[in-house]
Amino acid sequence: MAFLLLIEDDEAVRTALEMSLTRQGHRVVTAATGEDGLKLLREQRPDLIVLDVNLPGIDGFEVCRRIRRTDQLPIILLTARSDDIDVVVGLESGADDYVVKPVQGRVLDARIRAVMRRGEREANDSATFGTIVIDRAAMTVTKNGEDLQLTPTELRLLLELSRRPGQALSRQQLLRLVWEHDYLGDSRLVDACVQRLRAKVEDVPSSPKLIRTVRGVGYRLDAPS
Amino acid sequence: MAFLLLIEDDEAVRTALEMSLTRQGHRVVTAATGEDGLKLLREQRPDLIVLDVNLPGIDGFEVCRRIRRTDQLPIILLTARSDDIDVVVGLESGADDYVVKPVQGRVLDARIRAVMRRGEREANDSATFGTIVIDRAAMTVTKNGEDLQLTPTELRLLLELSRRPGQALSRQQLLRLVWEHDYLGDSRLVDACVQRLRAKVEDVPSSPKLIRTVRGVGYRLDAPS
DNA sequence: CCCAACTGTCACAGCGCTGTCACAGGGACG
DNA sequence: CGTCCCTGTGACAGCGCTGTGACAGTTGGG
Fold first, then answer.
1. pLDDT tens digits for range B56-71
2. CA torsion sign, A30 to A33 to A34 to A36?
3. Which residue in chain A is spatially nearest to B222 when comparing CA positions?
4. Shortest CA to C1' contact from A212: nucleotide
């Protein structure tokens, strides 16, 4: 279904994932180190990269950053179990998704498909989240067909969230993406804007279904199933 | 279905897209650099150009601008993912659409068809927006059947807006399209022209229904439903 | 159950954005 | 050469967006 590059130093994990992903219909090339991975990336041009965080030599985060300097292809990080710091650092270093080890091939496959779909949807000019429709060309947002009057900042915030549906974005990241600032003190800037956006976008702003809070991290835009 | 010129330096991407587009029924010629692309354009006269932004030598934007100086054929830009600046610059340089990489052949094909359809509609010489009728061949605009006396600049502004109905255009983009300037300081140039155009076009200029303001962005021409 | 950390909420002051307008330069045309 | 109208500019005002900081509410762990 897709052409993947798997970068993972542990041989057992590597071969297991390779077999499983191949069985799911993907074409897979593998590398055991970050250096080899970067070389293979340039030579083979995969559609997507699955990248272990714990690598000998340059680690996964660094590999991720280096890839992002030149390439925009989707990256999924494999990270050791439930390490919140890893998650934040990983997303900030430019990854599209992360998966916690130990991971089953089926689960990874589902994430791969999700990330690829996300990429396709991004290219499209309109996106739907529940009753909300975002028209990126017209720069309008409608709810049940009615125009929502969003302020410029609210709109930018929603656009950035909608470009990464289902992905938690830290206040730090949002600050960079929406406000183009680097540092947020302990002000409630992002929270206040999210509140205003929720007031217009959510059916019940006090129990938001679209813009979810991710405690300790930031916010996430969900499409209700 | 159409005769395409694909300009893309990365050989893997180029051949992949060429195969995919050929399979979709298009006739495709390819070039690896902007120079070759421009030469092929003159020699072969394709219906549409798919143009990568990252090209060695003269980049895609520049190629796009050069093509626009002499030709009006549709151009679709291939741009690196999630780069808003690219999108804006791309449309300003005269592209008709942009597609975000990595891109699937199917998606690109859909965009190609959409742009071609749009082109056909455009070839039609008149467009209607509410009580306003624009006759592109006669270069006249009528309101309820009566001729409107638009000045040259007002007319160009209205024509550019009407080529992209429902799409928000930034002041920056309009400046490029209508005035062929590059930089707008903080002057009220675009606003002033929009105001004058509204005075003639809108039923109630103080609450415009056709030329809508998109706060923080620019303006948009709507067709009242 | 309690505490600490985190998030939601709100009012307000400042200011950024847009609409508006008058005016002067300049080009077109006779 | 004179006239007229188009056009870009800058000033100004009004509106409403936005960031701030204090405080209340909520969550989760010990």
1. 888 888 888 888 877 7
2. negative
3. A138
4. C7
